[in-house]
Amino acid sequence: MHKNWQIFSQPRVYIYILTGTIIILLTFFTQNNALEIAISGVASVFIGIGVNNFSAIETHERDQRKLNAALYHTAGLIKGIDLKLARMRAEFNHEELLKFGHEFEELEFLVELAMRHLTKDES
Q: What crossing angle do the helices spanning 94-122 and 33-91 adopt, rounded to 10°?
């Protein structure tokens, strides 16, 4: 409920809804049915814009939360890969390290690069 009120209190939401509500109140001051319908139509446009802006903000915030969760899980996965590489490097003997050392360095560099990109995007 608190989140909805924060979204509603943004100017691009409440100004349109308030304007539509004020316009619809003008229907009380007229006796002409056609004019009432026209006023209601104009009011519904403003209220519709406000509701659409509300939905757009809410959807953007939900998408941002999903993206942040995905980034968090991806960072954890990359850290796990880095730990696995370190364990494998520690278990290799000297000859194997001479043979595969360059590949380990490449993989460790790629892991470090991916982590830099993730942390750069988070900040």
A: 160
